[in-house]
Amino acid sequence: MDKQSRWAQLRPYMMIAPAMAGILAFVIYPILYLIYLSFFKYNLMNKDKSKFIGLDNFTQIFTRADFYKALSNTMIYTASVVLLTMFISLLIAVWLNKKSKINVIVQAGIFTPHIISIVSISLVWLWLMEPNLGFLNYVLKTLGLPPSQWLQSSKTALLSVIIVSVWQGIGYYVLIIVAALQSISPSIYEAAALDNASKWKVFYKITLPIISPQLFFILVIMTIGSFKVFDTVQVMTGGGPNNATNTIVYYIYGFRTTNIGYSAATGVVLMAIIGLLTFVYFRLLSKKVHYQ
Amino acid sequence: MKTFEFKYVRFAVGLVLKAAMLMVFIFPFLWMISTSLQTFRETLSFPPTWIPAVPQWRNFIEAMSAGPFLTYAKNSVIVTTSIIVIQMLVMIPAAYAFAKYKFIGKNVLFGMILLAFMIPGQVTFIPVYMMMADWGLIKTLMPQIIPFMSNAFGIFLLRQYFMQIPEEIVEAARLDNASEFKIMWNIMIPMAKPALATVALFSFVSHWNDYFWPLIMTDSASIRPLTLGIAMLRETEGISNWHIIMAGNVVLVVPILIVYLFCSKQIVKAFVYSGIK
Amino acid sequence: MKKNKVTLLLVLTMIISLLAGCAGANNGSNTNSGTNSGSANTPEADEQPAKGGKTTVQFWHSLGGKNGEYMDALIKTFNETHSDIEVVGTFQGNYDETVTKLQQAVAANTAPDVSMLERAYVQMFADSEVLEDLTPFLESSSLSADDFTAGLMGHSTFNDKLVSLPLNRSTPILHVNKSMLDEKGLAVPTTWEEMNQVANALVIQENGEFKRYGFTMPYDTWYPIAMISQAGGKFFNDDNTSIGFADNGVGEKVFNQLKKLQSTGALYYPPAQDSGNITNQMFVEGKVAMMYQSTGSIGGLTEAVDFDYVTAFLPKDEVFANPTGGANVAMMSGSKNKEAAWEFIRWMETDPQGGLQFILKSGYLPFTNKMVESAEIKALWEKEPNRKVAYDQLQYAVDTNKAVAWPEVMHEFFSAIEAIMYDSKDVKSTLDTFKKEADRILAQ
What is the protein's major site of localization (chain B) (predicted)? Predict the structure, then answer.
C-alpha cells in the first residue's frame, strides 16, 4: 500500500519527465549559456580573445536608441496584429459560419497563406507594395486615394509588415472561431429569436460570451507568436528602413556574427521580458480555469 | 415572393464577395504555381506574367534534377514524422499530468513550459549546435529532431483540452479498477483526437517548411531536407531562376495540402468543446 | 475503435523502424548510397570516411543555382584527377549564413578544411586566428601573391599574412540598354556630370507617374562606397580609426548627387528586400535604361534581354574607382588535412581544368594572370566584350572598407543609407550620426 501511494506521488513527475528533460536541455541550458556570454565581449571562434566586461553589454543595451526602437516596434506589432487578426477573423468567421460547400472552400482558401513558404509570399507582396508600379498603389490611385510608400518609408513600413502578418494568420483563426461558433446549440438562438432580440444584441450578449474561452486561447497563442516574429521581418524588410521594422528577435539575430556577447545580453533581456509575460499569463490563465 | 428574390440576390452578392475574398488570400499560391510553369524570360517581365504562354512542365524536372532530391525528400519525411511521433509520446503524458494531477512544483514547471513556448530558435541556436557537436550528432538527423521533442504549444493546448474532460469520467473509470495508463490510453486520447490532430498539423507545417533550423544544424547534403534543396536553387549573386525555384516550392507544398485536407475536419472538432461536455 | 488502435500501433512501429533505419545509415556503413538520386552533376556529399587511404577534404561554399552546378562540376573534375584526395563540397546558405555556420562550427570543432568566405568577412576571421597563413604553401608550389590579379587581392592579407585567395569575385559595373540611348542619340556616360544629363534625358513621365527611369542600383553599400571612392574619399581612414568621407564633404556630395537624381526620376532606388531581382527585372523590361549592378548578372542579362546590351565602367567623378565583391577561399587553421586541402586550393586556383573552367562558365572575374592570358579567356572576351569591360575596370579597383569591424559598421551604414534614400532624412546630420556610431565601434 505504502509502495503504491509513493508511486502515485511519483507518477506525475515520471509523466512530465521527458517533456521537462527536453525543455531543460534545449531551452533552459541555452538560456544559462547566453547569460554567461552576456558578461563578455565574446569571441566565439577564439576564446582566448574574449574579454570579460561585466555589465557593459547591458549598459550598452539600455543606452542604445535602436534597442528601444526594436522593443517598441515589437510591442506595436504585437498589439496591432493581435487586435486586427482577432477582429477580422471574428467578422469572417461569423460570415462563413453557415455549413455549406462554398464556405468550406473559402475557409480552405484563406488558410493557404499559412502553408506556403514565406519566400513565395514575400516575393508577391514586395511586388504588390512597390510604390511606383505596384498593384496596391494602382488600386489606391483608381479609387482616388493618395498612394503610399509602403515598405520604403519608415512611416508605413511597420504597418505594411503588420498587414502581411494579419493576412497570413487569419485563415487559422477563422477556422478555430468557426468551430467555436458551430458548437453553440441552436436552441439558444431560438430562445433569443422568441425574445425578438436584435442580431447585434444576440451576438454581443450571447455568442461572444459563449466563445470567449476560445477567443482567450487565441489571444494567448497569438500574443506569444507575434512577440517572437522573425521570418516576416527577415524576408519583407530586413528590419528597415532605418530600423522601422526591426523587432527584438531580429535585433538579437542581427548581432550574432559581429557581437555575440551583446546579442546574448539582449537575449537575456528578452528572456526577462518574456518571463514577466509568462507570469502575467499564468495568473490570467489560472483565473480562467477557476472561472470555468 | 419578394423575400425569395431578396434572398436570391443576397446569395449572389455573398457569393461574389466570397469569391473576391478567396482571391485576396490565394493569389500568392496561384502566383507560385503560375511562375513554376513560366519560361525564364517570362519570370523577368514586369508587371509580372500571370498566365504563361506555354506551360513549362520541364521546370519541375529541372528543379528535381539539380540535387539529390530523393534524399532531401526522404529526410524531410523522416524528420517531420519523427518529430510528430516523439512529440506525441512526450506531450500526452505531460499534458495529462499537468491537467489531472496535483503535485509540488507544478506551477513552476508549467511556467517553464510556457517560457519554452516563447523562446524562438533564433536566440538559442548556437549553444544547441555546440551541444549537438559535443554529443557527436552533427552528422545525423538528430539535431533536426530532438530539440523539438517537447512541444510547448502542444502541451499547453492538450492540457487545456484534458481539463475540459469532466472529472466524473475519470473517477468512474477508476472505480472500475482501470489503471491510470488505461484511462489515458482508452479514454483521454480518443477524446483528445481533434486536439492531437491540430498539434500534428501545426508541427507538420512548421517543420516541413522550416529553413532556418535545418540550415544551422546540418553541415552536409545527405542529411538535409527539401527546404534546403530548394534554397540551393537560388543564385547567391546574379539572376535567379525563379521558375525553377517556384517549381521546387510547389513540390514542397503538395504534401502539406494533403495533410491539411486530412486534418481540417479534425481541427474543427478540436475547438468544438460542447462535444465533450 | 479497436481497428484504430491497431492502425496506430502499425504506424508507430513503422516509423520507429524507419527511425532506426536512418540512424543505422548515418552511423554505420554506407547503406544509403543506393537511394541518392542518380543525377550526374551532383557529387554525393556523404560524410563517409573515404576508403582506400583517401584523404577527405571538406569544402563549404555559398553557391546555389547555376553557379552551384559549376562548382559541383569543378569538384567532380578534381576528384576524378586525384586518386588520393576526395573533396566534399557542401552548400551552406548565402554568404551571411555561411559565416554564421562557420563561426559556430569553429567553436564546436566541426569546421571544414576549406571554406568560401565573403571577402568583407575575411578580416574578422583572420583576427580570430582561425585562417591558415597560405604563404608557405604558395612557396612550396612555386607560386607567389604576384601571380594573382592585383585588383582582387585587396582582402587577401591580414597583418602581413596571406589568409585567403580570390575565387568567385565580382565588381559593380554599369549595364546599359544601348538601344534606348541610341534612340535619343545619347552616348554612354563616363562621368557623374554626363550621368546626370543622360539619366535625366531618358526619364519618361506621364501624369505625374514615372513610366521610365534613367538608371537604378540595388540597395547595397557597394554602390555608395564606389561613389565615395570616385569622389576621392575613403570608407575608412588610413589607420582605420574613423570613417574617411564625413569631414571632407565627400559623403555629402555622394548622397546629394543620389538624392538629386532620385527626385527627378533619373534614379530609381528600389525597395531594400530583393532589390537585385527587382532592378534586373526593370532593366530587362526597359523600365530603366541603365543600372549599376554586379558583373555576376552579365550572363543572365545577356540571355534575357532583347535589346542591344553593353557594359561600361562606372562613371567617374574625380577618378574612376570601383570596389570588388564576391568571395575568397580560405584554409581553416583547424584542418587536419592541410596538405590535401592546399592541393585542392592550388588546383582550383591555378590548374587550367580547375578555376578557369568555373570562371568561363559562371562569368565571375578571372583571378590569376595566367588565366587572363589564356586562350580560352581571350576567346570568351572576343565573343562577349561585356565581360572584358568588367575585367578591365579592375585596374581602378580599390577597397577601402577593410577592417575587422567592417561587418558591424556595415550594419550602421545600411541604416544611414535607408534614412537618406527612403526617408529623405537630412544628409549631413544622418552622416554625422553614422560617424559617431562607427567611431564607437572602431574604438572597441
Answer: membrane
In a domain, A5, yes or no: no
- Complex-level ipTM: 0.83
| Cβ neighbours, 10 Å, residue C3 | 7
Residue A134 lies in a domain: yes
C172-323+401-443 and C2-170+326-373 share a CATH fold: yes
Residues B90, C89: Cα–Cα separation, whole Å: 37
Residues of A in contact with B31 (CB under 8 A): 120, 124
Three-state DSSP class for residue C25: helix
> Over 80: is that where the pLDDT of C47 sits?
no
Which of these CATH numbers, 3.40.190.10, 3.40.930.10, 3.50.30.50, 3.20.80.10, describes C2-170+326-373? 3.40.190.10
Mean pLDDT computed over C284-305: 89
If we measure between CA atoms, which residue out of A15, A201, C211, C422 comes closest to residue B47? C211
Q: Quick check: B220 and C46 CB within 8 A? A: yes
Contact B98, B155 (CB under 8 A): yes
Give, as one character, the DSSP assignment of residue C368.
Answer: B
The residue of A4, A10, A11, A15 whose CB has the most chain B CBs within 10 angstroms, and thus the best one to mutate to test that interface, is: A15
Identify the closest residue of chain A to B164 by CA–CA distance: A292
Q: At A197, phi and psi to the nearest 5?
A: -70, 145
Domains: count for chain A = 1
CATH code for the part of the protein at C172-323+401-443: 3.40.190.10
Question: Does any domain span residue A96?
Answer: yes
- For chain C, give the percent of residues with pLDDT over 70: 88
d(C-alpha C93, C-alpha C85), whole Å: 25
DSSP conformation class of C373: H
Report yes or no on A46 lying in a domain.
no
What is the distance between the alpha carbons of residues B238 and A8, in angstroms, rounded to a whole number? 65
Q: pLDDT tens across A143-168, in order?
A: 888 888 888 888 899 999 999 999 98
- CATH number of A269's domain: 1.10.3720.10
Spatial distance between the Cα atoms of C294 and C154, rounded to a whole number of angstroms? 18
Q: Is A15 in contact with B94 (CB distance < 8 Å)?
A: yes
Q: Which domain holds residue A282?
A: 65-288
For residue C169, give the 3-state DSSP assignment: strand
Return the number of CB contacts < 8 Å for A and C: 87
